[in-house]
Hints:
The protein has about 280 residues and is α+β, with helices and mostly antiparallel strands. It is built from six helices and 19 strands. It has five domains: about 1-35, no CATH class; about 40-80, no CATH class; about 85-160, no CATH class; about 165-205, no CATH class; about 210-275, no CATH class.
Amino acid sequence: MLLPSGGFVPVGTEGDCIAFGGAYQGDSVACATVNCPAPPPTGGCCDPNGNCTIVTETQCQNDGGTYQGDFSLCTPSPCADPSGACCAPNDSCSETVRSACQAGGGTFIGANTTCLAPNCSDIPGACCLPDGSCDSVVFSACQASNGLFKGFSVACANANCPTPTGACCTSDSPCQLLTQAACDTEGGAYQGNATSCTPNPCPALAPTGACCDGAGVCTLRTQTSCENLSSSYRGDNTGMQQRTMPHRDRRMLFFRQCVFANHAGLLRIGHRCVCR
């Protein structure tokens, strides 16, 4: 079957050919007997805003562009750098060339536009809200919502809003700022988008102690965590614990010490706590 590009697919039903936008050549007609026309050449096409795309001459003209010639390329760009209104991220407007506008993080409104029309403050754009959602609003409304404005005329589909974080409370670690997915992975309780660890919303951590598994390996865990592993808990604050001691120059030195209570069933061997 003959395709619009001038190529052909060797085998296909009439329905397949039509679905591809091709011209069906007849039942049982072999490709070797068909003289398919060559596809039209393509080249660089400059639109009024100085953007370059590779299309056919006909398509370029239909889109209002200026065709740069058959087989011309867009790298380096053959298009002129147009001048027009540039809306900066801070809602101000200046008239400059497109490349300078985009280099400064601005939104180029269009060739030959001025700062008198349109007014940047009236142009909506994507606003990433603290809860991770996106809304198309004007710059001032985005600021009032504590949002992150992604640019004038930018669609939410192209905003790439960051995944929100919030306070995550787990049973055996301090409050952490995580995404909800990461908090769930840690087995924690997510406190909500944009929540903070200051002040700490998490309950006091349960004490930890030596947890001896069936192979005699000693780890630090809470009693609940240890018993959930069917291991033996040897008491609060036992095992290899971090301790501090004052130094003569008033600094606090940190070191690790094997701590074991009476009948805790732990031995210190070198710098390790081992179960017995």
